[in-house]
Amino acid sequence: MAAAYDTIVVGLGGMGSAATYHLAGRGKRVLGLERFTPVHSRGSSHGQSRIIRQAYFEDPAYVPLVLHAYDLWRKLEAESGRRLLSITGGLMLGSADSEVVTGSIHSAQTYGLAHEILSTEDIRKRFSPFSPAAGTLALYEKEAGIIRPEESVGAHLEQAAARGAELHFEEPVVRWEAAPSGDGVRVATDRATYAAERLVIAPGAWAPSVLTDLHLPLEVERQVQYWFEPAGGVEPFLPDRFPIYIWENRDGSTVYGFPAIDGATDGVKVAFHHMGAAATADTIDREVHPYEIARMQSYLAAHIPALDGRCLRAVTCMYTNTPDQNFVIATHPDYSQVAIAAGFSGHGYKFACVVGEILADLATDGSTRHAIALFTPGRFA
Ligand SMILES: Cc1cc2nc3c(=O)[nH]c(=O)nc-3n(C[C@H](O)[C@H](O)[C@H](O)COP(=O)(O)OP(=O)(O)OC[C@H]3O[C@@H](n4cnc5c(N)ncnc54)[C@H](O)[C@@H]3O)c2cc1C
Fold first, then answer.
1. What is residue 2's predicted lDDT score, i.e. its pLDDT?
2. What is the DSSP letter of 42?
3. Which terminus of the chain is more solvent-facing, meaning fewer CB atoms within 10 Å of its CB: N or C?
């Protein structure tokens, strides 16, 4: 059967929507297949806001990718006319030997990124809602901010469709197969079977069931995003005075949060980073329980006491973790015509536009100019 498509993309979430956009932009005949509706909230790319920052504490190898991401997000913003990126400044807080502080300084120095180091007193003075314990330091970077996931997945999908991509929603892929010769793929959904030259697989938390043949050591982790109403009013949390932040605590917990980006209506978003229960994409408990809200309230009482009002809403989300928290982005080890993206370990969204470009490179040329050696699945062997 002659392939009707150049490339099929499985999963139209953060990474898959971006891949579809880049492939369609290169004139490829693209079919995108998604099990849910456009911009749904059952995967990993929902909840109003994601942090974007440059002094990357996890590893300086991410810095060139994130610098390129800013350019691609701004281009998508111009093309779509949507507001995607807001620069608010960012604080990376912790003790002098915390990973968040030492790692951020290391990346900032390696790449000469503009930053300031703030003492406990500086933090209290400049950002009065924070109540840091003595010995807390922070790296402040003014280019950090927020990328809006629903708006940007929507923009990638809409711009892909405008460039001719065919997008099917509520059509789960049940099986895919690739010829060992590198010659073509077949993808079966609950509705039809499609043939293509190339395949991109970006299934988020469903990776353990879609990429079964690779036996990747992935663990899905349940996360909760909370929106609190500051009882004393939202003013101290507005984005012109309150930054995004990641705060590593001495007990090993890490909390991050955002300013009130939509003003008073939506509240102020905070979340724990990791520390969630093991889950699977199909069986995750999507209800948020009172004891979880109480735990966050007790954290806030000690660290950001002005966030003391009602919890307006709380929504679950999923991380798909690798053992070293680095991504998996590669050509499939057994099939040169298949590119895979998985294991974003709770820090992938800011890169979605670049990951889409890399997946389009791999599916088109078999290689990419971006440095992706860190992301090889071969490291788990
Ligand atoms: C609470 C939370 C906070 C986060 N904060 C940040 C942050 O501040 N900064 C940051 O950079 N990152 C952050 N992340 C991580 C980031 O959001 C994820 O890394 C990113 O969204 C992952 O995108 P994805 O495309 O892999 O997954 P998804 O966006 O979930 O996309 C996968 C898609 O594949 C579809 N799919 C799966 N199986 C099939 C199938 N068989 N057939 C058809 N379709 C299928 C799914 O329905 C889904 O739409 C956060 C994540 C969470 C959960």
1. 59
2. S
3. C
